[in-house]
Amino acid sequence: MRRSRVIVMTAIALTALSACGSSGGAETDVGARVASLATPEARPSAGAAAKKVDKERPRERLDTTPEEFEAMLVPFNKCLKKSGFTDQAQGKQVADRSRDTAKAASKKEETENAAYRACEEQYYPLPPWEQDPANPEAREFARAVVKCLKAKGVKYVEVSDDGISPAFGGDRNDSRSISMGMDLAPECEREVAAAMK
After folding, report:
1. Model confidence pLDDT, tens digit, residues 109-147
2. Residue at a domain's end among 75, 101, 126
3. Threshold 0.70, pTM exceeds
C-alpha cells in the first residue's frame, strides 16, 4: 500500500513538472489547464496616490533655515504662477479690480482661492512632524516645549488653542515673555525632539 502511494505521488510530480517545463510551442491539453504564477500588473491604490502627493510635498524640519524654506517654496510658487497668480507671496492676484463688477470680482476671487488651495495642498511645505496635527504625539511635544521654556525663564507661555504650538505673553501680552519665548523656542524644540527619540 505504501509503495503504491509513492508511485502515485511520483507520477503526479512528474506530470506537474513536465507541464511546467513545456515550451511555449504547441500546448497540450494538460498544459492549458496548469495555473500560471505570473503576477498581474500592479495598480496604484488610493493610499499609494496619497503617498505620492506627500512625496512631492516637502516637509520642514525643526532646524530648517530660511534659505531652505525658500527653496521648498519653489514648486508651490511655480504652481501659483501657472494658476495665474502674480503676487506669489500672498497668493492673491495683483490686478486692478476697479473696472470689474462686484459679481465678476467675487467670481474671480473664488477661482483664485480654489487654485491657491489646490497648490497649497500639493506643494506647500508640511510642518515639521513634531508640530504636524496628523502626528498623534504633537500635543505631547507642545506640552514638553512649554515646560522647557518655563524652565528657561519664560514666565507667560502655554500651549495655544490649536494644541500643537506655544502661545507667548499670556493675557498680559507680556513683551518679555514673547521675546524670550521666540528666542528660546527653537532650542527647546530641538532638546525635546532629541529627548523624545
Report:
1. 777 888 899 999 999 999 999 999 999 999 999 999 999
2. 126
3. no
